[in-house]
Amino acid sequence: MSSGMDPVTARLGAAVQSYQGAVDDFDRELARLLGVNETDLRCLEILLTVEETAPRELSRLLGLTTGSVTTMLDRLEKLAYLTRTPHPTDRRRTLVRITPEAARRCYGLIGPFVDDATRQVGDRYTPEQLELVTDFLTFTRDIQQQHVEKLRGTPAAGPSRTGGRQAPGPRGGTG
């Protein structure tokens, strides 16, 4: 962070960084419990928000090649986390959707957190404050997404990787 930053902005930056670390930790544990890598988890998160989507759209959202998406979908289909069906009007296309069992499993893992966070945050802040927080998160998400696109356009220093990082097993175990 810049040394010319005012104390409030510096604390905000540190809080955002700490929050992002907590989100990363939560996602890593979800991935571990579901037996997937973090990119697969992000795919499942996307599929939880839509009824169905095309592999090409997943490729765009995840910043992966269509070949990498196909490999990822093969893994997730083998785990019974998603299904692929032919497009109803264009037989060259495929539609992907999360299975009801996978959706239940994901919601079973994230539901307690969402319920607890909703209750605690709702109890602590006024509706007006929550509007401001929502605006802040939306605004900073948009800025971050702009920088994700810039990074995606920057050549990597070494060979490219696909498929995401593997989620670690339980700490201290042989898992």
- Helix share, percent: 55-70%
Low-confidence spans:
166-175
**Computed structural class:** mainly alpha
Number of helices: 6
CATH architectural designation of the domain at 18-124? Orthogonal Bundle
CATH topology type of the domain at 18-124: Arc Repressor Mutant, subunit A
- Distance N terminus to C terminus? 37 Å
Order of helices and strands: HHHHEEHH
The percent range for strand residues is 5-15%
The count of strands amounts to 2
Question: Can you describe this structure?
Answer:
The chain is mainly α and 175 residues long. Helix content is 64%, strand content 6%. Strands 1-2 form a two-stranded antiparallel ribbon. α3 packs across α4. The chain is globular and about 55 Å long. It starts with 6 loop residues before the first helix and ends in a 23-residue tail after the last helix.
